Each structure stands twice: as structure tokens, then as C-alpha cells.
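Structure ticket #2291
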Amino acid sequence: MPDLWTAPAGTPADLRVLALLPIPPDAHVEHLTWHGDSPGGGPLRLVEADLDPAGRVATLRLLQGDRLVADLRVRHGAPRHAAPHRLLRTALGPGASYTRTFTVTADLTTDHVPDAEPVLSTPALIASLEDTAADVLRPHFAPATASLGTWIGVRHTGPAHAGDRYEVTAVLADVRGRRYLFDVHATLAGRPIGDGQVAQTLISR
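Resolution: structure written out below.
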């Protein structure tokens, strides 16, 4: 592929992945959260970190030494396939997007750091990311349809102060039945202040 840092979004990547994860044939990886690379070499090990009470969803933890490398959510059964849902009047596919501008008001800031100017709180940033993702869906709702935020994987990477105006963009990445997953980015004057993914799930009101 072209250089990783200059290739446009959507360019196929040449990845070589080792089949080191013992996923049973009657299950699938539902979600993977990568926590970052590990220092130096050393063997990787996989442990079961959690199992839901129904015994259908397990969280596997990939470790190198004591350092957490990744968490994998594994669900029993076949994966759900992308399909439009009847709660939308029109089908939406990956790439649908919306951009919105937010103003930081005093009630959205946190001032718990002594001798520091109040900044946009992480919960307020997440709320704007989720609301922008919902804005992608709202024009397509069927009657009596709404959406709820059901998953968050977000980094808060930079400050914003009262009076600042920041821009949020949400881009639809994946559709699984009623669940819509979005890539989200927040910038202030071109400077990134947050990014990650959020999921919205359709409900009937």
C-alpha cells in the first residue's frame, strides 16, 4: 500500500496477523479494544477476564508480562450481519456523516484541578460526540423511533475552555441490526481534542 501516513482513508492495508487467538468455531470476536503496544519483547498470554451471567459473552485479556495490550469481547454464536433496520425510513450505510459545532459553557467545564483554568469535562465531550452520532440517524427515523448511546470508546486528548467553539464529526462505520457504530472526532481550531468510537442503538418509543 502507499505510505501509511499519507494514504487516504479507505486504502487497503497489507496486514499480516498471527492466528494466536483461540476463538471457538461457534463464537466470534464482537469487539476488540487495543490499549497500546507493550515495552520490549516477551511472550504474550491470553486470560479470561470476565464471563457474563448467561455464559454467552466472554472478555479475553491479552497481556505481555503485567502490561495490558488488548481486550477482546467474544460472543457465542454466529456474527450479526449488516442489514438496514425497519426503525429507519431509509437505509444508512458506512460513510454517512454529520458535523456539528458546540460552544463550551461554564456548566460544561470541570474545575477540580487546583490553580488551573476550568476546561471542558470528559462527560460533556462524550455527550457531544454521542449527540452528533445520533444526528446522523435522526433524519431517517421512522415514526416513534429514537436512539440511545450504548457503547463508548473515547480518548479526551486536549483542553477546551469556556467560550471556545469546537467541531465534532461522526462517521458511520458499521451497521449490525439496530446497532450503529460511529467513528467520532472533535477538533478546536484544527487541533484534536478527542476521538474514538461510539455506538447508537435504535429503539421504539
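Closing remark: The CA atoms of residues 31 and 71 lie 8 Å apart.
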